[in-house]
Amino acid sequence: MRGFFPIFFAPGFFTSSQVVNALWVGTFVAAVSGMIGVFVVIRGQSFVGHALTDLGATGASGAFLIGLNIWYGFLSFGLLAGAGVELMGDKNHRSRDIATGIILSFAMGLGALFLYFDTITSNNATVSMLVLFGSIFVMDPTMTPIVIGVGLATIVLLGVLYRPLILSSVNPEIARTRGVPVRLVGLIFMILLAAAVEDGALVLGALLSTALLIGPAAAAVRLTSRTGLALIWAAGMGILATWLGIILAYDSYEWPPYGRGWPVSFFTAVLILVFYLVSHFISKRSRWLLIREVNEK
Amino acid sequence: MSFLFQIFQPNMLSQPFMVNAFLSGSIVAVLAAIVGFFVILRGYTFAAHALPKIGFAGASGAVMFGVNPLIGLVVFAVSGALSIGLLGKRGRHDVITALVLVVALGTGALFLVITDNYATGAYALLFGQLVGVSGSEVVEIAILGVICIGVLSFLYRPLLFASILQEGAEARGISIRLLGMVFLVVVGITTAITVPVVGALLSFSLMIGPAATTQYVTHHPFRSMGLSVSISLFTVWSALTLAYDTGWPIGFFVAAISAIIYCLARFTAKRNPITFVRSQMKPKNL
Fold first, then answer.
1. How far apart are CA A43 and CA A294, in angstroms?
2. Mutate which of A88, A106, A213, A244 to disrupt the B interface (most B C-beta within 10 Å)?
3. pLDDT the model gives residue A251
4. Most buried among A255, A259, A291, B116, by the most CB within 10 A?
């Protein structure tokens, strides 16, 4: 054990301020994404959840263009797009996906243009990679309280919304007859979702924040049919995958090609897939249907 | 008149790379429009969005190992399509699509870091560039495109039937699962050859934009596909021309033009298209 410890935690791991910062931010982001993700999986909104980060990336590259911190771009575009998708929301699942797709592709086109201008004006192409793939180690430490604050606010609001949200996710008709404002709940949830995924986008990059949102939640709903437990499982697995990802990425500076370090997002994505596959073997069927049945009673 | 010459620069097609771009762009436009028709009909929007990004990861891997990026694109996009088809449950493959997507992207990020190829290689693959297609690649794209069209024309009737009335098709002994898998593989190959032209992030708009637009105009499958192909060709040709003029990314023009055409159709149409198409396509008509 004594020999293993320094191999696993490479020297300087706990003293590096960037690493400590990354661990704090990563913990909150993973917890929030995991919990919100459970509802995303139950509601079948994976596509929207993923689309919001791409839309956020457009905002981020726009923010970089006018000299703001990319975080504000992520958040403002994410919130706007989330509200927009929900308000345009159609009852028909399929046409909602198509409308999401068209808005998304237009926004991504705009994002491509912004990134092109970013690259030209700042004369380096790393900004597009920063926006798309993210880097938790180079995050501006002054952003930490804001990111954590948004994460905490999201969790609190999710707690307030908990019962009506479950009811309107599993059965909108019953929720409506019991006087739950289903559309309003949907809108607020979409705003929470936007806040969660944009937090994730800052940490893992726009392309990979979907990993923390969907992966742990999809594994959790296989392990339990109780919503509360599923939230805890999802948050726990998300946090574990993030911590291990950060540790391994830190270790990987010693791996070839030396001194460059493998991306956190690679390790996290692979770990999340492993969790999902393990849960797949433990339980043969996804229990989101069971969650519906339990809650309907 | 001089304004027109500014847009359609006379020397544009004397550049060999522009000829390659127009040839491959046209092939891709036709194929994407036809595949897109079924993507919209079957509700595979998320998969169509995910597969090009999965292919992007493959291309960056191919760059790392020094092989033709098109091979990486095809291998990753097809295996991504197969995993989505195999692991996805009937009617609900959004979760597994997201998972396959993030794992592929994580691997892609790793390839990019190892080759230190962030700046140049990735940018072209993500957003498309005019000089992205070489003469030999045009031939490869054409061969793959012809194969896809061949498979689609062979599958046309069962696929249409199964997309509209799954139970009816099953009752007649069509294997829905196999059909869905083969179709996903076709989507994978189509995205793989679209990426070098318009880029990974925007090849999705070429696939769903024109097809979604025509649903507001016509309800007949053949007319619908014909119209998608025309819109798609118009989009690609004007995007290539404008990208040549401005030097801006092709993907931006593809996305903007197809979004404008979609909005025009949507706000002038009266009916909700998809339910109407479905109500029109009764099994007896098939």
1. 15
2. A106
3. 81
4. A291
